[in-house]
Amino acid sequence: MMGIYIFIFFAYLFGPLIIMSITAFNSAEFPSITPWECFSFRWFNEGKIAYDGQHLAGLLSDWRLHDGIISSLIIGAGVVTLSVPIGMAAAIVLTQVRSQLRDIYYSISIMPVLFPGVIIGISTVVLWDRIAGLGGEGFIADIGRNGIFLTILAQTCFISTYCFLIFVARLQRFDQTQEEAALDLGASQTQVFFKILVPYLSPAIASAAVIAFLFSFENYNTTVFSILSDQTLTTVIASKVRLGISPALSALALTIIALTIIAAVTYEVLRRRAEKRYAESQEKFVKEKAADNRINKKYKVGFKIPKGITAILLIVVFVTYGATQIVKNDLYGQSCIDAADKEKKSKFLEQLQTLESNELTDEELSGGSLGGNQDYGDIFGDPSLFQDFGGFD
Amino acid sequence: MSADVELSDVSVTFGSFYAAKNVNVKVNGGEFFSFLGPSGCGKTTLLRAISGFQEPSEGKVLIDNKDMSGIGPNKRPTALIFQNLALFPLMSVSENIAFSLEVRGVSKEERKKRADELLELIALEGQGDKKVHQLSGGQKQRVAIARALAVEPKVLLLDEPLSALDLKLRQRMRTELREIQKRVNITFIYITHDQGEALTMSDRIAVMNEGELEQIGKCDEVYNNPLTPFVATFVGENNPLYGKVTGIEGDKAKIETADGQYLATMNESKKLNIGDESIAFVRPESLFIPRDSDNFDNKIDVNIESFEFEGNLKNFYASLKSGAKIKFSVPNAIDTSSITSGSSIVLGFESSKSVILPKASLAID
Question: 0.80 exceeded by the pTM?
Answer without folding.
Answer: no
